[in-house]
Fold:
Amino acid sequence: MSAVEWGYNESNGPSTWVKNFPTAAGSRQSPVDIVTSLATSDTSLTSKPLNWKYVPENTREIINTGHGWRVDVKGEGSELIGGPLEDSYRLQQFHCHWGFQSDKGSEHTVDGQPFAGELHLVHWNKNKYANCGEAAAFADGLAVLGVLLKVGKENPELQKIVEHIPSIYHRGQKTAIKEPIDPAKLLPGTFSYWTYLGSLTTPPCSESVTWILFKEPIEVSEEQLSAFRSLRCYKPEEACPCDELEGLVINNYRPPLPLGNRELRECGSV
Ligand SMILES: [Zn+2]
Structure:
């Protein structure tokens, strides 16, 4: 398996990643199961509210990475500060994880319970580092906002992404975002969250992420999840890998890993 061939099927899935990406066996890995009774409330989180600013016009392009869709963002003007963060972080991209069916698909679970999917808004520390790639090598380099998805009504902001899916069925395909997507509109209505120190949930699984997982899920329709499941994990010129996923991007989530002796903190209650 080469570095680019990791995936989510039986032969290249999460349990195999450690062979090529030793960090995946580390003690600061993500996702985790959020055991809600273990979370400690911390007044330092409430005294310094989490705050974000995004520029919808700066969502540029959507790409099929072979592991899902990813919207790349021109970070200028965006900012994530406060809460557990000491520095100011800039938005780089956002992407999503989902299941084969809607009874699972999230990476983080809450008291053992999976959700239908999970959105990740990836930010990097612009006070200390030059770009996202550099920041990913440092313990305080990245901050990811996690949003749990549950099945319900159609999400208008995610619908703008669904409309681009037919242009990016295959791995490597990308297309310009037609109507600006406002990342702030992908966040839930209440801003209570759990936070802990973790990692990227995809190779190289760098232990550089301050995770901020919102307690309240957002709703997404079954049809929207079905559209995500129609993405292919192979290039247009390649043959379908004919694995148990039939070449589709489904179950693109990593199962939870031990929290170990890391602290789980919370801010607010839903
Ligand atoms: Zn992710």
Q: What stands out?
A: The longest strand covers residues 89-98. The chain has one domain: 3-267. The two ends are 43 Å apart (CA to CA).
